[in-house]
TrEMBL record:
<dbReference type="InterPro" id="IPR009011">
    <property type="entry name" value="Man6P_isomerase_rcpt-bd_dom_sf"/>
</dbReference>
<protein>
    <recommendedName>
        <fullName>MRH domain-containing protein</fullName>
    </recommendedName>
</protein>
<feature type="domain" description="MRH">
    <location>
        <begin position="22"/>
        <end position="176"/>
    </location>
</feature>
<feature type="signal peptide">
    <location>
        <begin position="1"/>
        <end position="18"/>
    </location>
</feature>
<keyword id="KW-1015">Disulfide bond</keyword>
<keyword id="KW-0732">Signal</keyword>
<dbReference type="InterPro" id="IPR044865">
    <property type="entry name" value="MRH_dom"/>
</dbReference>
Length: 271
C-alpha cells in the first residue's frame, strides 16, 4: 500500500530528462556502474614492454599521442612497436571504435571491471594475422583492484585471430562510489542517473529500494568491497547503507520522504 501511495505521489512530481551515457562510463549486467575516466592518462597513455621485445602504447577512452605521432596519423588509441619484427609501428585501435563491455566470464566470477575494445583495419593481412583478419581487435581488460594503483599486468598479440589482449588492474576500475569521499557538508540524499541505472547516496543512512518487474540492486561495502546484490523479475525490496545502485524500469529508492528512481523507464527525483 505504501508503495502505491508513493507511486501516486510521484505522478505529480517533475520528470527529469533522460541524459546520455557519458563516454568512459559503463553499467555492467549487475547494475554496477563505472567511471573509467580516472584511468585516462592525459593524451600520453600507457607504455608496456614485453619479454618479446614489443612495446605496447595505449590509452583508456582517449587517443594516445605516442601512437599518433609515431605513425603520423590521428585517432589511434593503441599501437605497438615491434622491436625486431618486419613492421616497426602497428596501429592496434582507433579511438572512434571504442566500446565498453563485460569482462570475460564476469557473470560467473562476479569480477568487477569492464573490457574496453578498440578495432582498426589490418593493413598487413596474413603477414600480421595468420587468419587474414580484416580487422585488428584490441581488448583492454580493466580489473577492479580496490585501493591499488594502476598496474599493467600483461599485453599479448594473438596472431592466430588478430586479437590483442591487455590486462590492467586498478582501483580506478572499481564501481563508482562516493561514500568514502563524502564530507560533512554533503547533501543527506543524492541520486546520479546513468543510462538505465541510478546510484543513490545517503551517507550513514539506510536506503530502501523497491522495484517491480526486472530489477537489480546492489551495494558495495566501501571498506571490504564485498558486494550485496539482489535481483528479481517480479518485485524486489532492498535495503542498503550509504549507497546503492539499482537498474530497472520501475524502481524507486528512498530515505524518509526523499526518493529517486524510474517509473516506466522515466527518471524521477524528489529531494
Ligand atoms: C602518464 O603520463 C605521463 C606523461 O604525461 C608519464 O610520464 C607517465 O609515465 C604516465 N603514467 C603511466 C602509468 O604510464
Ligand atoms: C570485445 O572484444 C571481445 C574479444 O573480441 C569480445 O568477445 C567482446 O564481445 C567485445 N565486447 C564489446 C563490448 O564489443
Ligand atoms: C561523486 O564524486 C564524483 C567525483 O568526485 C563527482 O563528480 C560526483 O558529482 C559525485 N556524485 C555525488 C552524487 O556526490
Ligand atoms: C558518518 O558516521 C561516521 C562515524 O560516526 C562519521 O565519522 C562521519 O562523519 C559520518 N558521515 C556523514 C556524511 O555524516
Ligand atoms: C506505464 O506504461 C504502461 C504501458 O505503456 C501504462 O499502461 C501505465 O499507465 C504506465 N504507468 C505509469 C505509472 O506511467
Amino acid at each position: 500500500m505504501t508503495y502505491l501511495l508513493i507511486v501516486l505521489a510521484i505522478l505529480i512530481v517533475s520528470y527529469v530528462q533522460s541524459q546520455n551515457l557519458p563516454s568512459c562510463t559503463y553499467v555492467d549486467y549487475d547494475g554496477r556502474y563505472y567511471d573509467f575516466s580516472g584511468l585516462i592518462n592525459g593524451t600520453y597513455g600507457y607504455t608496456h614492454d614485453t619479454l618479446f621485445g614489443e612495446t605496447y602504447y595505449f590509452n583508456i577512452c582517449a587517443e594516445d599521442t605516442v601512437c599518433d605521432t609515431s605513425m603520423n596519423i590521428v585517432g589511434s588509441s593503441a599501437c605497438m612497436l615491434n622491436g625486431g619484427g618486419e613492421f616497426s609501428w602497428i596501429n592496434l585501435g582507433d579511438y572512434t571504435s571504442m566500446e565498453l563491455g563485460q569482462l570475460p566470464n564476469a557473470d560467473v566470477t562476479g569480477q568487477m571491471g569492464a573490457t574496453l575494445n578498440y578495432t582498426t583495419l589490418n593493413y598487413f593481412s596474413t603477414l600480421l594475422c595468420s587468419d587474414d583478419s580484416q580487422y585488428i581487435y584490441t581488448s583492454i581488460q580493466m580489473f577492479c583492484n580496490p585501493g591499488q594503483p594502476t598496474t599493467i599486468s600483461s599485453a599479448l598479440f594473438i596472431q592466430n585471430d588478430c586479437h590483442v589482449i591487455i590486462e590492467i588492474t586498478s582501483n580506478d576500475a572499481c564501481p563508482y562510489q562516493n561514500t568514502s569521499t563524502t564530507s560533512s557538508d554533503d547533501k543527506p540524499f543524492e541520486c546520479v542517473f546513468l543510462d538505465n541505472s541510478v546510484a543513490v547516496l545517503a551517507p550513514n543512512k539506510t536506503i530502501e529500494c523497491k522495484g517491480s518487474g526486472t530489477t537489480i540492486c546492489n551495494s558495495v561495502d566501501a571498506y571490504t568491497q564485498r558486494i550485496y546484490m539482489s535481483t528479481s523479475d517480479t518485485s524486489l525490496t532492498f535495503f542498503a547503507p550509504d549507497e546503492v545502485q539499482c537498474m530497472g524500469s520501475n524502481v524507486l529508492c528512498n530515505y524518509e520522504s526523499m526518493y529517486c528512481g524510474f517509473i516506466n523507464g522515466t527518471e524521477v527525483t524528489n529531494y
